[in-house]
């Protein structure tokens, strides 16, 4: 599909991520899983060493780097495109040195004042996610009058700050931050109204994979995180039809199938 979204496969090298925590703590297991995701069709692999699940503890940057840098290096050596999922400027820098070609910061540069200069210097794509605070207290910040307009305006402020600090605008991808300082209703409203975020004129990057709001669908009551792969694939198809630029997912194979459905649909309607 000419304009299909880029698929970003997720590797969490953490003991405590909410959906795949602990599975890929050893670098070899993480690399093997990443290679499987690439075979299945991932365009990028997003490597993270700090869980952002609600209530998670912060990880010191040296421990985070100990987790992620060997994995980033091993994947980059194999020619795989790697992004680093971090809020730490030092970790972003270490990962870029190890071969990462994109920085994904769930805080959009707010958590670490050094992030903008690292990204400006590296001149790599930067995923700027909507964020209102660390996991420990983000639930209390899920208060909005008009969630869609506020997410747009807060992202616009971040675009202005980052570009003022030397990050090139064409390096930015905007992420609505599904599940970050947002309840289920906020998530659905933002996802169904991405056209408003598109007013900012930058490509959209979205991560819904296995998130809690999908587990809240009535038919999934009491099921585990993997049961969320089906609604993840359905939402991914809707987002692809809506024209998002990138999807961050755990189950790459299912997302590839979802995108094939979208392609068939589009071709038949042309
Ligand atoms: N979600 C998580 C982690 N990193 N990065 C971006 N850009 N967007 C997201 O929505 C996002 C992210 C949390 O999910 P995980 O624990 O499954 O990785």
Structure description:
The protein has helices at residues 27-40, 61-77, 89-97, 115-122, 147-164, 184-192, 194-197, 212-215, 229-241, 252-269, and strands spanning 6-12, 44-48, 82-85, 102-105, 126-129, 172-175, 205-206, 246-249. The model has no long low-confidence stretch (mean pLDDT 94). The radius of gyration is 17 Å and the shape is globular. Helix content is 42%, strand content 13%. By secondary structure, it is α/β, with parallel strands linked by helices. Strand 2 (44-48), helix 2 (61-77) and strand 3 (82-85) form a beta-alpha-beta unit. It contains 10 helices and 8 strands. The chain has an 8-stranded parallel sheet with strand order 6-5-4-3-2-1-8-7, with helices on one face. The protein has a single domain, classed as Dihydropteroate synthase-like (TIM Barrel). Pterin-6-yl-methyl-monophosphate binds next to strand 1 and strand 5.
How would the blueprint of this fold be written?
Elements: E1 6-12, H1 27-40, E2 44-48, H2 61-77, E3 82-85, H3 89-97, E4 102-105, H4 115-122, E5 126-129, H5 147-164, E6 172-175, H6 184-192, H7 194-197, E7 205-206, H8 212-215, H9 229-241, E8 246-249, H10 252-269
Parallel strand pairs: 1-2, 1-8, 2-3, 3-4, 4-5, 5-6, 7-8
Helix pairs in contact: 1-2, 2-3, 3-4, 9-10
